[in-house]
């Protein structure tokens, strides 16, 4: 399954009514439509300045990791409805000692696409290969600086050398395994211009997708300059240049065409809240879900989930506007 083709299809289908009809039918006939995002351990090895892990008070609230029996129950409860399994949503999954088992469970329940989001500092060739053998489809790698100085400044406790060693391993293993590597680059006005040097530091043979996204406020972070007005006018040209370089290197580009001026929600993201399922030792999908004792079908029927999906077909876009900020990424296929 090509998850990026689905992303492009979602953007091309303009009618939210058609989308919610599709979700309703998938739900009613027990098909897969959820993007299950799981944090198996509530910790991180880095302290990135644009991340809430630099908020000491918030970090104190993050506790726990899944035990083996809990992990098995999570898989039993929700994996059959997962179209995609994303391991690592707000914490660092490579700290979890049973990470390979999470992937194996995903494959055991026939989840079509399994991805890990990580800062890659704890990955080496052996660990990467073990995850690939377990059935992993994609590594999504967080990046906050192209140059060593800015990388280690924004991603504190990280090693630029260890990061690039992981990409050397990706390049080598790509010759043996079929998997994707996606780079998520979060930019602010202080690390924006070095994007022009991206392909001077990263070999196009080591990754497949480049996502470029503006900084967002996600808590009381150490870096808190969210004003992008000083680079707004220059953004389109830089993205145009990167798009050209991506095409030359056969890289898929995910990037908004312009920097949004507000937190308005686009039509493509209206269904996000109805497909997103977050799971961690502290939370499971919706509040009140007794996932140890209730099935997904029983609980969704209890809260009228199917009826809600059906009713959304007849609501206006204005009624459906999400409070979350999700950008309308333009997907470039090369």
From TrEMBL:
UniProt cofactor(s): [4Fe-4S] cluster
Transmembrane annotation, as ranges: none
Gene3D superfamilies named among the record's database cross-references: Aldolase class I
Domain of life, per lineage:
Bacteria
Query: What InterPro entries does the record tag this protein with?
Result: Aldolase_TIM, Elp3/MiaA/NifB-like_rSAM, Radical_SAM_PqqE_MftC-like, rSAM, rSAM_sf
Key words of the record: Iron, Iron-sulfur, Metal-binding, S-adenosyl-L-methionine
- Which GO terms of the molecular function aspect are on file? catalytic activity; iron-sulfur cluster binding; metal ion binding
List residues of the Radical SAM core domain: 28-245
What PANTHER family does the annotation carry? PQQA PEPTIDE CYCLASE, RADICAL SAM DOMAIN PROTEIN
Record-given protein name = 4Fe-4S single cluster protein
Protein source organism? Xanthomarina spongicola
